[in-house]
Amino acid sequence: xxxxxxxxxxxxxxxxxxxxxxxxxxxxxxxxxxxxxxxxxxxxxxxxxxxxxxxxxxxxxxxxxxxxxxxxxxxxxxxxxxxxxxxxxxxxxxxxxxxxxxxxxxxxxxxxxxxxxxxxxxxxxxxxxxxxx
Length: 133
What we know:
mainly alpha; about 85% helix; 7 helices
């Protein structure tokens, strides 16, 4: 159901995603992003922000983790949901183009978006092949 090529793309993505996070930390992404500023305003302290950010991520991961355990079409659904990440991350490139300047995270984002094209090609192929079985 999931091709070796698709698995290789996912394995390539993992270090790129971590590098992307490192690039964002080093370049102060949190100081430049409108959404970071907006969502930060909901919290009154660092402790409160830490509690909610860690717990919300955990709560959101429970459903996809269970669906992955079921396999089959559910696995493809979770991988498709993960693929939306590439569209959300396009903001780095868009903001860099808008400002015609470096935007924190744009370097590794370019690599992620290229891999994202191959990722979507494989996920579409996996859905087509799944429906044939």
